[in-house]
Amino acid sequence: MLMHPPARHPSLSIVIPLYNEEENVAPLVKAIFRVLAEDTDFLELVLVDDGSHDRTATLALELASRESRIRLIKHESNRGLGAAMRTGFEAAAGELVLYTDADLPFDFDLIPQLLTLAKPQHIVIGYRANRGEGPRRWLLSKGYNLIFHAAFGLRVRDVNFACKLIPRGALRQMHLASEGSFIDAELLLECRRQGLSIVEFPLTYYPRTRGQSTLSRPKVIAGILAEMAKYSLQFSHFRDRHLPSTLRPPFQRYGVAAASVALALLLALLFQPLTGLNFFALFVPAVMFAAWYGGLKPGLMAAALSGLAIDYFLLSPAYSLTLSWDDLPRLGLLILATLFVAGFTEWRKWAE
Fold first, then answer.
1. In terms of domains, do 154 and 280 share one?
2. Are residues 281 and 180 in the same domain?
3. Phi-psi bin for 134: left (phi > 0), alpha (psi -120 to 50), beta?
4. Between the CA of residue 166 and those of 96, 163, 171, what are the distances in Å?
5. What is the pLDDT, as a whole number, of residue 109?
6. 20 to 30 A Cα–Cα from 205, which one of 107, 168, 321, 333?
7. Backbone phi, then psi, for 217, in 5-degree steps?
8. How many structural domains are present in the chain?
């Protein structure tokens, strides 16, 4: 029976970080080369030992001495998942770079299928079509995906799953800084910053059977949240006035809407008794700004909050919520202002 040669594709590097993975190194290499040994476009397997305390580096070095396509890079001390991945990405020579974990989280027989999806203008990421890690890990994963979407406005099914196929040209333009497990999210955010689309591919997840995962440890979770906050503050991408409002993070869009109403209320409470200024005039600009910055839904939320703030804090008797028919014209004007600004903003972007 004749064996068909593997389909041609851009040259490939596989990057895998290792930390105390002595039980997984040999099965990992065997699984990869069983699939890709005959693929002439498979350039290298880059193993990055992140300061392991066991025999991981020794075993990896023995395997590298027998197979020229295996490269071992060592960190003298443990620096974290993000640092290990960045080291591997910098060393990778292939036009495509596939990142995965050492514990064989999916069927490597599907790597050729992933390669058929690769294009310069997008990245391919795997997501778990099944949940095999238990209720605690499932809850942590779902919670993290929700926080990631709320903080950055990017929705994917599985942020942290260890299967990402990225053009090396895109990696060279990324500003990766994470030392820890936030690196998976940072990769996706940097791809969006470059305008790359994200193609999601379902994979059957195989839970770890050898070695020990550190991802769900409280220290690791705290590190992810800290690096998430640092990324939000450090990069101005999400504050770019040219970014469409619908792509801004929901937390930021709705937060700005609430803050604009709160500021209008504060100014009304401070200055209206002194100047006699019509306090309603302060809320219209606040609602219009919320609609311009965040879009229609945050604008409508600001309109509703403005109506409540006026009734609860500014109309007599204060601190009593007494909505009546007399409130409808005021609320209607706020909604009309929201619709006008949101519609004008979308029309202007379309015209450009």
1. no
2. no
3. left
4. 6, 10, 7
5. 95
6. 168
7. -70, 145
8. 2
CB 196 within 8 A of CB 123: yes
- Residue 76 is part of which domain span? 12-239
Assigned token pair, 257: 């809407």
Of 196, 205, 194, 272, residue with least CA distance to 235: 194
Contact 310/283 with Cβ under 8 angstroms?
A: yes
User: Amino acid letter at 151?
Assistant: A
State the Cα–Cα distance between residues 248 and 244, nearest whole angstrom: 7
pLDDT 10s digits, 6-24: 678 899 999 999 999 999 9
Tokens 């939000």 locate to: 232
74 phi/psi in degrees, rounded to 5? -120, 135
**Collapsed DSSP state (helix, strand, coil) of residue 55:** coil
345 and 273 share one domain: yes
Report d(CA 64, CA 29) in Å as an integer: 10
164 beta partners: 99, 125
51 within domain boundaries = yes
Q: Are residues 198 and 304 in the same domain?
A: no
Encoded amino acid at 103, one letter: D
Whole-angstrom Cα distance, residue 125 to residue 114?
A: 9
CA dihedral 128, 133, 138, 140 (to 10 degrees): -110
Please state the pTM of the whole predicted model. 0.71
Mean pLDDT on 167-179: 92
Alpha helices in the chain (DSSP H): 25-36, 56-66, 81-91, 111-116, 135-152, 168-172, 183-193, 218-234, 250-275, 280-294, 296-309, 328-351
At residue 31, what is the residue type? A
> What is the pLDDT confidence band of residue 242, given thresholds at 50, 70 and 90?
very low
Residue 339 token pair = 């619709």
Q: What is the DSSP string of 251-301?
A: HHHHHHHHHHHHHHHHHHHHHHHHH---THHHHHHHHHHHHHHH-HHHHHH
